[in-house]
Amino acid sequence: MAKKDLLVSLKNVGVERDGKWLVRGVDFEVRRGEIVTLIGPNGSGKSTSVKCALGVIDPTEGQVNRATDLVVSYVPQKFNLDWTLPLSVKRLMNLTAHHSHADIEEALEQVGIAHLADAEVSHLSGGELQRAQLARAMLRKPDLLVLDEPVQGVDFQGEVALYELIAHMRDHHNCGVLLISHDLHVVMAATDTVICMNGHVCCRGAPKQVAQSAEYQQLFGVRRSEALAIYDHQHDHTHLPDGRVKHADGTICEDCDHSHGAHDHKEHDHA
Ligand SMILES: Nc1ncnc2c1ncn2[C@@H]1O[C@H](COP(=O)(O)OP(=O)(O)OP(=O)(O)O)[C@@H](O)[C@H]1O
């Protein structure tokens, strides 16, 4: 796999635990310069798929390929920190690796919190903390940046700004980005591919430019609406009440995949 091109790919990946498939039939890839977003409800297998992509867990079936010497920065969903310990933003940057003062300054500058270098991490707002984590992730100069729910604890405006920032990081560092979000409605316009999960890959596609609806533009402003995209959530199949699946071409099968009869959908529903 050429490092400059394909960073990671999953082919028909499945993870089984205690006789139950947590995810199955997961296929996606992330290339340098590309932003791929996994969306889906809680428990739909987004984190499990990302763990496979990163090699944290081995898939029970299927294949995962990573570029040689791939440098990954992972920003987790939860930031476990002892909030009683004094820790400045600057020190947070050097918590697990040593970076020069100049590099730290530049990283904080890039995420717009250079003025908070000496601030206590426990005093940061949700958005500022996300930016600090992003700065810390970028200091590793990753080929692949992985962000789990990057907008948690951030208000809508902050969310838009954070997505814009992630796209900027992608452009500036020419890395690939893998995002996890449970939000089905708001994904950034810069996302190249949205993978919608529900125990398997339901559907995928490029997010459309935000709906040109007057209400939306009124609510978020034209600039905001330009920065956002609504993923047009069209499934290519419908789950019938009796458990069978009707495909877009009208054929009715026992499962979602025309060509893949072994897929078991009893573990989840598509409501
Ligand atoms: N090691 C494990 N053993 C058994 N079940 C697990 C294990 N890890 C995850 N699961 C289950 O697998 C399912 C998928 O979990 P996963 O964390 O991948 O979902 P997710 O889409 O990332 O969810 P969320 O949006 O809530 O973070 C869940 O039902 C979870 O309880």
UniProtKB/TrEMBL annotation:
Task: Indicate the segments forming the ABC transporter domain, all copies.
Answer: 8-223
Keyword tags: ATP-binding, Cell membrane, Ion transport, Membrane, Nucleotide-binding, Translocase, Transport, Zinc, Zinc transport
This chain's protein is named Zinc import ATP-binding protein ZnuC
Q: Which GO terms describe its molecular function?
A: ATP binding
Encoded by which gene? Answer: znuC
Keyword Membrane tagged: yes
A Pfam family that this protein carries is ABC_tran
Family matches, as PANTHER family: METAL TRANSPORT SYSTEM ATP-BINDING PROTEIN TM_0124-RELATED, ZINC IMPORT ATP-BINDING PROTEIN ZNUC
Give the source's domain of life in one word: Bacteria
Q: Describe the family membership recorded for this protein in Swiss-Prot or TrEMBL.
A: Belongs to the ABC transporter superfamily.
